[in-house]
Amino acid sequence: MPDTGTTSTVSPFSGSENPAVSVTFENLSKSFGDFAVLKDISFRVDRGEIFVLMGPSGSGKSVLLKHVVGLELPSAGRVFIDKYDASEETTREKVRLALVFQAGALFNSLTVYDNLALYPREHQLADEAGIREKVMRALQILSLENAAAKYPSELSGGMKKRVAIARALVMEPQLMLYDEPTSELDPVMSATISEIIATLKEQYHVTSIVVSHDRDLALSIADRVGILMGGQLVHLSPPAGLRDPGDPRIADFLHPQIDLKNPRFRKLES
Ligand SMILES: Nc1ncnc2c1ncn2[C@@H]1O[C@H](COP(=O)(O)OP(=O)(O)OP(=O)(O)O)[C@@H](O)[C@H]1O
Ligand SMILES: [Mg+2]
What's the pTM value of the predicted model, to 2 decimals? Predict the structure, then answer.
């Protein structure tokens, strides 16, 4: 059942009340045609929790995240944000949530500054001076002050990713969804992103669902880790549970062995 109690903290940007939210997946199934991507998935992400979702490429991680923001609709089952059904348009008016897309999804015709200012302008969160303060603060957190006037085409892949996170921060979210936030980033910037996710939890009680292949990130900041395989949630535990997951499929996924004698590699040599 969806969660209905309340707790709240203050937003990092506006100082306003920021009630924490939970996310409940209730028997969620999703098929595209005959292809079942998600099969009867049930779990809850608690208020203020950092939940890291791992799993092989194509296992349905991005599809699952898209259900939380209403970009995909369930074939069966439901997703709730607190007591609100995630598939309903009105839910996104009641809960501030931000999805950091795998590929950034920036507006190419807008500068970095205007990409970040778009949401607060549209929602009239502040006057232009107030918006400038929020935008510059987010850019500073992600070491992007010098990129404000640049266009997305002028940025590296890792910079685009950071701009996408900065843009999400400006939305003052109660719920942050990250799709591969540290891919394409160097180790120092990856650690910075992990710190930001952890800080949002510690100081502002933001709930986070993080899709990632990054085991270090999972071990360092997750409260719990879920692993999606074959359309099912095959593992759910605090990060320590990854050390000895039991299931050999999970061990192979977490600690893949490279076999250079594999005939596939031999073919490359000849
Ligand atoms: N709109 C769609 N129509 C049809 N099939 C889709 C659609 N979106 C995703 N899929 C399929 O669903 C499966 C899961 O895709 P998804 O993008 O969720 O994988 P993923 O776990 O995020 O993988 P990766 O780690 O590579 O990002 C894939 O086989 C993909 O081709
Ligand atoms: Mg994906």
Answer: 0.86
pLDDT of residue 18: 61
Tell me which residues have their CB within 5 A of the ion that is ligand 2.
62
**Architecture of the domain defined by 8-96+175-269:** 3-Layer(aba) Sandwich (3.40)
What confidence score (pLDDT) does residue 10 get?
46
Q: Name all residues whose Cβ lies below 6 A of ligand 1.
A: 32, 37, 55, 57-63, 102
Task: For ligand 1, atom 18, name the residue with the nearest CA.
Answer: 60
201-206 contacts at long range (C-beta below 8 A, 24 or more positions apart): 201/48, 201/49, 201/50, 203/9, 203/12, 204/9, 204/10, 204/11, 204/12, 204/18, 205/7, 205/8, 205/9, 205/18, 205/20, 205/47, 205/48, 206/18, 206/20, 206/48, 206/173, 206/174, 206/175, 206/176
Averaged pLDDT for residues 35-59: 95
- Mean pLDDT (the chain) is 87
Closest residue CA from atom 29 of ligand 1? 58
Domain boundaries, the chain: 8-96+175-269, 106-171
How many A from CA of 32 to the centre of ligand 1?
10
pLDDT category of residue 3 using cuts at 50, 70 and 90: low
Task: Give the HSE-up count for residue 23: Cα atoms under 13 Å, Cβ half-sphere.
Answer: 30
Average pLDDT over residues 63-81: 96
pLDDT digits (tens, 9 = 90+) for 128-139: 999 999 999 999
Strands 97-100 and 23-32, how do they pair?
Answer: unpaired
Of 39, 62, 214, 253, the residue with max ligand 1 atoms within 8 A of its CB, to mutate for a pocket test, comes to: 62
